[in-house]
Design brief:
The complex is a heterodimer. Chain A is mainly alpha-helical. Helices cover 75% and strands 1% of the residues of chain A. Chain A has a two-stranded antiparallel ribbon with strand order 1-2. In chain A, 56% of the residues are buried. The chains are: A mainly alpha, B alpha/beta.
Chain lengths: 671, 345
């Protein structure tokens, strides 16, 4: 015990040699920037920094790398909240409620809540790293493929609570996500599923461009139409930063639960922050008595993911240190650092130095996470009020930059032009889903968990046949799944029962009345499209073998009747609307909306065409300048901003990072 | 001669004013950028080796070009391979790093592979993967005798067809009639290790160069041991572990093991340039490549990173790849059945 305490103390001391500390600050600075910029992910940056650690001692190396990894999620949260563009893949869920808060003028509160809950989550994760290391072996080894499969299904079962107003829509959206998760080459059977013979689609639909499209593109359209700043309401509440801090403590139990959830998911290898953020978001919704507030700026929707995406790192370090099996993408690259430093993950990391191990180094990881988060959170709080003001800048000045972030973000993650097109397709889908009141989070969760579920189901069957159905842990998870699915329905039923009868009647009519706006006919058209999509997917999958075919069949047969049900509801709504003559109620405002929507859509597509023809570099300059000028900005502002956009793009991505941007088609023709 | 020495500066001055028509290979790379295109994402094994070579190769190429590394990921590096063959500039300024067994896939009829493996310019490979099979103590298999006599199929964890983890065990199974079941679908060798430690599978077969550092704790404690080497020559630190070809009983078996010990060993990590790069420039790059891998600075860095360096030169790789195209049709269909999913009939 004395040994352990001594190692804990030594671990802290090691951090404060001047060189280690300077490197940690450097790491934090890099992480800060990387987090803010979409498309520049934490893992890629870590990989690029690896060669620099050759000459460092282990503590210095990890101060640098882990310091960087620890803060990317923090500044990524800021981008997600302010612009509705995910700064990091693991901060995408922050958009769902964080960005609406910013739009309501509560950017300060949202940032305060995100930062505080992040801080709590990070410390929680780090403490778990300290405590869990000795006990981790049985914990990790208890999760085999059957348990993975059940956990993925558990995540999907949480969807029932994510469905917002309409359960049918939520379930169908989840099935859409599962369907998208199936796109690609099934390598085991060699079957190409929904790839249209494009090699690009072999790897499936990537999370980052899909999230960018689903969430960021509709925001841009929305902002352009509203013609205001990001914050539509007056930002008198910037002092709300303190409010956000208070919110964290008001919902203390939720923050702790989500921190624990994030840590646990981190410990399970292969899931990581991309999964933990959504599961905790689902949990935040599920545990709230008032689910209708979510998606419209509920602070719990910020607190949950904030805590979880930060606690995941500490959790993911646990199996990395204890086994050399990384828990997440970032820790997979940190494992490379272990090897470079000649460290052997495993028992020696848990043995005190006196006995030839590296325990104090392991404890220094804990301290690095803690110290980096203290520094980052402090810096962010200093500038928070200023950062939040960005939401007051008028939209014409902001839109070109958000578009730029979207396009670079989609491309640079994997240097694939196909990702940009995926973003546009999902942008269209996301916009339609917003217009027709379909929930988007279940779709993303389906996309995240679909592959995991399928892969582990077949591993399970290959390894255990049918025996796994009798495993106690599997049965326990099954019980949880049943509870998770039916509890929200039960809650709903109980609440309805307690309401007076007339309210119940009103509730029954209300959704129909809401749907019956001027868009009524589009609701039916979109539902029809969804039905057709599933029918087509099933038809395509008809002659596939059992292995590649099972999931498409299950998803198709589940989704088709549900989608059909939704179509019926929508058609009924449309008929009613037309009967009431509401469809005629098109006024000038509606005409303006249509015109503005077409205009901004043209800009978004035009930007894409410009990139395609001119290449990124020239397209950024041309489009930014044109947009600013046509939005009637003054020449000086337009030129300065264009130069700024282009120079920061070129300096960062071309000069420093050598991202291989494709040449414009026009130049290729001219040559 | 001496009286005319004054002509020399004048000649140089004159020459520097006019464009020199054919730059010799020596000067070609001056002021140029040499790009490594890696078919896998940053941080992985392919990327690590490519970046290591990229950091040191400039000083071995006359003209000292600027060197950059790009990751062009997708379809198990097939996108990068197709790009190198069909689209990349054919002047020797682009070098590809993608997984070599794709050439075998192309030979066996993978329609998505749009290249002819004989026509690439092969620079060489920085390291061979020495595929070995490691089984857990819990599996009860301590030696090859145990394995051959095993009453139950030994479960070998693997990622998927086309990878060493899947293809080599399947070749071993076919060649040696080993009781074995290859369980595919694990995302990476770390997951296979985990599955082995939890007892879900009995072990796995992949490069010793990767098993040695990442599974060091298991090897040290004796919880994991190497029982078979699927290569043609014994590794120095595995002297007591038998080679697969000791157990081969037929010519076909030996031929299958040759694929395992060749294409999946020396041929896994080759660097290549597109077809059509001028022969002298290719030779220059081949020489530069071998010189880079003997560079003390590179070796020191590799040692620090625990990366093995065991280079194979370009002509050897070229011969091996060309050899795959000479496979007779009966053997080819045997390989297709074994290695290409969905083509079992």
């Amino acid at each position: 015990m004395v040994d352990i305490l001594d190692a804990l103390f030594q671990g802290l001391l090691q951090l404060f040699s001047w060189k280690a500390f300077a490197l940690q600050l450097t790491g934090i600075a890099v992480g800060f920037l990387v987090g803010i910029l979409p498309g520049l992910g934490g893992p890629v940056t870590l990989a690029l920094m690896l060669p620099f650690i050759f000459t460092m001692s282990p503590v210095e190396a990890f101060s640098f790398l882990l310091g960087m990894a620890a803060v990317t999620a923090t500044t990524g949260d800021i981008t997600s909240i302010l612009f509705g563009v995910p700064g990091e893949p693991i901060t995408a869920s922050m958009i769902v409620d964080g960005h609406p808060m910013a739009k309501k003028g509560e950017a300060g509160r949202a940032l305060g809540a995100a930062l505080t809950s992040s801080f709590v989550g990070a410390i929680f994760g780090a403490l778990c790293l300290a405590i869990a290391i000795p006990a981790v072996r049985p914990l990790v080894l208890s999760v085999g493929s059957p348990q993975y499969f059940m956990l993925a299904i558990l995540g999907l079962a949480f969807l029932a609570s994510l469905t917002g107003g309409s359960v049918t829509k939520g379930l169908v959206a989840a099935c859409l996500g599962l369907l998208f998760a199936l796109v690609g080459l099934d390598p085991i059977s060699g079957t190409e599923r929904y790839t249209f013979e494009a090699l690009y689609l072999w790897d499936g639909i990537r999370l980052v461009p899909a999230t960018l499209g689903l969430f960021a593109i509709p925001e841009i359209i929305d902002m352009a139409i509203a013609r205001t700043s990001i914050a539509k309401a007056d930002v008198g509440k910037i002092g709300g930063v303190l409010q956000g801090v208070k919110d964290t403590f008001r919902h203390w139990a939720l923050v702790m639960r989500c921190s624990a959830l994030g840590t646990y998911i981190g410990i399970i290898p292969g899931m990581g922050g991309a999964v933990s953020q959504w599961i905790s978001y689902a949990h935040a919704v599920q545990s709230s008595p008032d689910k209708d507030r979510f998606g419209k700026g509920a602070v719990e929707g910020v607190l949950g993911p904030g805590a979880a995406n930060h606690s995941t790192l500490g959790g993911a370090m646990v199996p990395t240190v204890a086994f050399g099996v990384p828990g997440s993408v970032s820790t997979a690259i940190l494992l490379g650092a272990f090897l470079i430093q000649g460290l052997v993950p495993g028992p020696s990391m848990l043995t005190p130095e006196a006995k030839g191990g590296n325990l104090s180094l392991t404890f220094s990881f804990v301290w690095i996470i803690v110290v980096s988060n203290i520094i980052t959170t402090a810096i962010c709080f200093l500038f928070l009020a200023k950062i939040a003001r960005i939401t007051q800048v008028r939209s014409t000045l902001v839109i070109p930059f958000i578009l730029l972030l979207c396009y670079i973000g989609a491309f640079a993650e994997n240097n694939a032009f196909g990702d940009v097109m995926v973003m546009l397709v999902f942008g269209a889908l996301g916009w339609v889903m917003v217009q027709t009141d379909w929930p988007r989070p279940p779709l993303i969760l389906g996309l995240v968990l679909g592959g995991l579920a399928e892969q582990n189901l077949f591993l399970t069957i290959d390894n255990y046949g049918m025996d796994w159905l009798g495993f106690p842990s599997v049965i326990a998870l099954f019980v949880l799944i049943v509870l998770g699915t039916f509890y929200p329905l039960f809650q709903r039923w109980r609440r309805k029962r307690n309401e007076p009868r007339y309210q119940q009647l009103a509730a029954a009519v209300a959704p129909q009345a809401k749907e019956a706006g001027p868009n009524a006919i589009w609701l039916s058209i979109f539902s029809l499209f969804v039905v057709a999509l599933f029918a087509w997917a099933l038809w395509q999958a008809w002659d596939w073998d059992f292995r590649p075919g099972l999931f498409p069949w299950v998803v198709g047969f589940l989704a088709l009747p549900l989608a059909f049900l939704q179509l019926n509801l929508d058609v009924a709504g449309t008929v009613k609307t037309i009967g009431h003559g509401l469809a005629k109620a098109r006024d000038q405002e509606a005409t303006r909306l249509t015109r503005e929507t077409i205009k901004i859509s043209a800009w978004i597509l035009g930007y894409f065409v410009a990139i395609w023809l001119l290449g990124f570099s020239a397209a950024i300059a041309v489009t930014t300048l044109l947009y600013l000028k046509l939005a009637k900005e003054r020449w000086l502002i337009a030129l300065v901003l264009t130069l700024f956009a282009w120079a920061s793009f070129y300096g960062m991505f071309v000069y420093l990072l050598h991202v291989p941007f494709p040449e414009g088609l026009l130049f290729a023709w001219l040559r | 001669m001496t009286p005319r020495i004054w002509l020399l500066p004048a000649t140089i001055a004159a020459l520097s004013l006019v464009a020199i028509p054919q730059a010799p290979a020596d000067d070609f790379y001056k002021g140029k950028t040499l790009t490594f295109v890696v078919g896998f994402s940053a941080g992985g094994g392919f990327d690590t080796y490519a970046r290591l070579v990229a950091r040191h190769i400039a000083k071995h190429i006359p003209g000292n070009p600027t060197v950059v590394v790009e990751n062009k990921t997708g379809a198990g590096s097939l996108i990068a391979a197709n790009y190198i063959y069909n689209q990349a500039p054919k002047d020797g300024t682009v070098i590809g790093s993608w997984i070599g067994p794709l050439v075998l896939q192309q030979v066996l009829g993978n329609k998505a592979a749009k290249f002819d493996g004989r026509k690439f310019g092969w620079l060489g490979a920085p390291v061979s993967d020495s595929c070995v099979c490691a089984l857990t103590k819990a599996s009860g298999i301590n030696t090859m005798d145990d394995w051959i006599k095993s009453k139950r199929p030994i479960k070998i964890g693997a990622t998927g067809p086309g990878s060493t983890t899947s293809d080599v065990p399947k070749l071993l199974q076919a060649a040696l009639a080993l009781p074995m079941k290859v369980v595919e679908g694990y995302k990476g060798t770390a997951k296979v290790r985990l599955a082995a430690e939890s007892g879900e599978v009995d072990g796995g077969c992949w490069a010793w160069e990767s098993i040695k550092p990442t599974w060091a704790s298991g090897l040290q404690s004796g919880a994991v041991r190497v029982v078979l080497q699927a290569i043609s020559k014994s590794l120095p630190d595995l002297k007591n572990v038998p080679l697969a070809n000791q157990y081969a009983k037929s010519d076909e078996a030996r031929a299958l093991l040759e694929i395992a010990g060749g294409t999946y060993s020396q041929g896994v990590r080759p660097l290549s340039v597109p077809p059509g790069v001028p022969q002298d420039r290719l030779e220059l790059l081949q020489k530069a490549f071998m010189a880079t891998l003997r560079d003390p600075a590179l070796l020191a860095e590799a040692k620090k990173s625990k990366l093995d360096i065991d280079p194979t030169d370009g002509p050897t790789i070229a011969k091996m790849m060309a050899g795959l195209y000479g496979t007779n049709s009966e053997f080819k269909s045997k390989l297709t059945t074994l290695l290409i999913p969905g083509k079992k009939k």
